[in-house]
Amino acid sequence: MITRLFSCASACLAPVFLLLSACSGPAAHPSYRIGFSQCSTGGTWRKAVLAGMERELSFHPEMHLRMLDAHDNSQRQQAQIRELVRGGIDLLIVSPQEAGPVTPAVEEAFQRGIPVVLLDRRITSEQYTAFVGGNNLEVGQTAARYAARLLKEHGHVLEILGGVNASTTANRHLGFAQGLAAFPNMHLVAQVNGNWDSVALQPLLATALKAHPEVSIIFAHNDEMGLGAARVLRQLGLRKKVRIIGVDGLEPGLVQQRALTASLLYPPAGEDAIRTAAKILAHQPFKRENILGTMVIDSTNAMTMRQQIDKMVSQQRDIERQQGLMQHLLATYATQQTALYVSLASLLVALALGAVAWRSARKNRQINRQLALQNAENDKINRELASRNEEYDRINHELTSQNQENDRINRQLLQQNEEISAQRNQLEVLAEQSRADTEAKLRFFTNFSHELRTPLTLIMGPVEEMLSSGPALTTSQRQDLTLVRRNTQRLLQLVNQLLDFRKIEVGKMAVRATEGDLVAFVREIVEVFEKPARLRGVQLRLLSAKPKLTAWFDGNLLDKVFFNLLSNAVKFTPDQGTVTISVQPADDGQALQVSIADTGRGISEQDRAHIFEWFYQGSQGTVAKGSGIGLALAHGLVRLHQGLLTFSSLPGRGSTFTVTLPRELPAELRADNPTDPSEMLLEVAEEILNDVNSETAAIAKAESDTLVLVIEDNEEVNDFLTRKLGGDFRVQSATDGHTGFRLATELLPDLIVCDVMMPGLSGLEVVAQLRADWRTSHIPVILLTARGAAEQQVEGVQAGADLYLTKPFNPTFLLESVRTLLANRARQRAQFRREFRLDEAAPTPDQKFLADLTATVQTHLSDTNLGVEDVARYLGLTRMQLYRKVKALLGTGVTEFIQGQRLDKAGELLLDDSRSITDVAYELGFSTPSYFSSSFRARYQLSPSEYRARHVTQ
C-alpha cells in the first residue's frame, strides 16, 4: 500500500519537474571553434583588429577563438595554419603576411571542407570562402587626390612605404601613383622604405629630405610611420613647411594635435570578420567580398570622429556592464532554482511520509496539522518563486529596451555621418568654385598686363630710336619725346606692379637677400624724390640713429616698397610740407625700422580698415587717385621679407607708415651671389656689343645674303621688325605660328625672330618643333615676349631659344643681337667641320662611357637594391657626376635608365616560355611580381602574359 502511495505521488509530481526543467533556460547552442592566424599583433591597427574581434565575440558565447601570432614570418604562419587545422577547428580566419608563401596552407584547409575567411590581405588563389578588408588601392588614390588638393595640384611628394613584400604596400603605392597621374604638376620625388617601423625610417627619411628640399608633403602608409616622419621634420625645422598624410585613422587626436595633417580611415575588420564567420557557421546568407570603405580624417572632422569613437566606447562599456548584470541575475536564478528542486524533493519525501503516517497513525491529528503547515509553507515558496520570475521578466524587458535605444543611437550616428559628408562635399564644391573664380580673375589681370607690353613696344621703340638719332631734333621736339618716354616708362612701371601682384598671389615672388647697409639703400631712394619735392617746396628729411645699419634684405623688393611709400607721402603732402624718413634699430637690435611720416591730410576712419587691400581706392578728395595697387603690393612684399608694414594717422596732421624688418633672414631666403635680371641684361648687351665690333667686317659681307624670318601676330609689331631688320638683311614674315613653321621648313632661314604669345601655335611650341625637326634644328631663334618673369625666361631658354628679349626692347640692341648670333653660328659650323675630320673609327669618350654604364647595369640586373650610389661606385664617380653625365647624354635619370634596361631584358626573357613570369621578375631585381607587371605594362602597353602570348605565337 505504501509503495502504491509513493508511486502515485511521484506520478503527480513528475509533470511539475518537467515544467520546471522547461523553464530553466534556453536550449544550449552548438559550440564552434575558430582558429585565427594573425601575421603580427604589433602596431595600433593590429591591436584594434583583435579588440574588435573580442567585442563581437562577447555577443556569441558559443564561439571560441584561438589566435596564433606569426611575428611577421611567413614560414611560421604557414606552419601555424596547419597546426590549427590539425587541432580541429570549424572555421579558419587568416591575415596573411605574404600572399605567395601562405597560399598552399590555406588551400589545404579549404580543400578539407573548413571555411576560410581572409582578413585585410588576399592570397594568390581563389580557394577561400570570404574576404573582409579595406581597399588599399582606393586608400592610395584618395591620399593622392587629397595631397593634390592641399598643394593646389602643384608640388613635390615623398612616400614612406610599409613592408617590402606586403601586398598592402604594393596596392597603396599603386593607387597613390595612379592618383598622382591625374595631376601633371604633382611629382613623386622620393620613396623611403619604413617597414611599418616609426624609428627605423628616421635616418633614411632625414637623408631623403636633405636630398629633396622641395618636398611639400609626405604620404606615410600608416599613422605610426607618419609620427616618425613628424619627429624628423621637427629635428630638421621643416614641420611648418611639410605636411603629413597617414593611414589608419584610429586616433583622430593625432590630427587634432596637428601631429598629422590628415589620416585616411582604414577600418579594423575584426568585428566584420566575426560577423561573417557567424553567418557562415549558422548557414545564413553572406557576402563573399566585404570591402570596407575609407574616408579622410582632417581638421574638419577629427573632433566629430573622436566624439563618435568615445560614444561607441561608452556604449560598449554599457553593454558589457549590462551583460555582467545579466550573468549575475542568471547565476542568482540558477541558485534559487536549485533551492526549489531541493524543496520539491523535500515535499516529495514529506508526502511519502505523510501517506505512511496517514495509513499507520490516522489517530495522530497533530501530525496532520504539521503536514498542513508544511503545505502552507510550500505555497509561500511557490508565490516567492512566481514573484522572482516576474522580476526576471522585468529585467529582460529593460535589457530589450536598452538594446532598442542603442540601435536608435547608432542609426542617429549614421545619419549624422551622412549629413557631415554631404556638407563637406558641398563645401569642397564651393571652395573649388571660389578658387576657379579667383584664378580666372588673376589670369585676366595677368593677360591684360602682358597685352599692354605690345603697344608699349611700338611706342618706346620709335621714341628711343628718334632720341638716339642725333641733333636733327629741335629742343622742343626732344623735350616732347623725352616726356613721351618718361610717361611710357611710368606706364610700364604700373604694368610691372600688376605682374608683381600676380607673382605674390601664386607664390612665385622669391626673396634673394644680401647683406648691405639699409641707411645707404634708403638714402639712394630718397635722392630720387628730392627734385620733384623741391619743385613743390616739400622738405625731405632723412634721420638715422647710426650712420650705418647693416641687415639682410632684397633690394629688388624693398625699392618697390619704399618707392611706393615715398611716392604716396610726397603726393599727399601739401606744398611747403615736410616728409620725414627715419631709420633706427628695434626689438633690442634684432630688427630695423624705417618710418615715413608726412604732414598731409591723414587717412579717414572708413579707409583705414581697407588701406592694404588690392585695388582699393579711398576717398582722397581733390588729390588724384592711384591704381589701388601700391600699398597692397608694398604690404605683400614686406610680408614676403618676413617683416611688418603698419601705419598710424591723425586727421589733418598726417600719416606715418613704418616698415619693420628682421636683420637676419633664414638661409633659404639668402643669395650669396644675387643675379639681377637688369644687370644680367646689361652684361649680355656689353658682350654682344664687344663681339659685334670684332665680327662687323665678316658679317657685313654676308648680310646681303642673310635671310631672317619674323613670326609675329601683331601686324604693327611685325611691320616694325620687318622695317628695322630689312635695312641689313633679307626678311620674310609670318603672322601665326603654323605659317611661320611652314616657312621655316621651306626657306631654311639663317635666323628666326619669333613672338611667344600667339594664337594657335605659341612661340615656345614653334621653337620645340624647330628643334625636333632635323632640317631646322640648327637655326638660331630669338624670342620676343611681354612675359618678363625669370622663370618664364628660363622656360623659353629650356625650349631651345638662343636669346630671350622682353618687350619693350631697344631696336638697336635687337639688330646687334641678330648679328652676334649669326657670327656665333658661323664659328660653330667651322668648329664642327674641324671635329668632323677626326678619325671616326675610334669611339668618343661619351660613347665609351655609355658602353661602360650599360655593361655595369646589365651585370647587376638581379640586384634588387641596385641604386644610383651603387652604379656611381662601380664607375668611380660621385652620385652628382653620374647624374649630370647621364642627364646630358640621354636626357633621363639614372633610375629610369636602370628600369629601362631591366624591362628591355624582360622582353627577351619572356620569349622563353620555360621561365615563369614570377621567375623573370625576381631574376631582374623586381621586389614583387605585381610591381614587375605594372612597370612592364607601363612600358609595353601589355601585361607580361599578353606580351608572351603574342610574341611566342608570332
Number of domains: 6
Q: Strand arrangement, largest sheet?
A: 2-1-3-4-5-11
Helix content: 55-70%
Give the DSSP E fraction (strand runs of 2 or more residues).
Answer: 5-15%
* CATH level 3 topology of the largest domain: Rossmann fold
Structural shape: elongated
What is the CATH domain class of the largest domain? Alpha Beta
The overall average pLDDT, rounded, is 79
Distance between the termini: 106 Å
**In CATH, what is the homologous superfamily of the largest domain?**
Response regulator
Number of helices: 30
Instruction: Please outline the major beta sheet.
Output: 6 strands, parallel
What's the gist of this structure?
By secondary structure, the protein is of the alpha/beta class. It contains 30 helices and 24 strands. 58% of the residues lie in helices and 14% in strands.
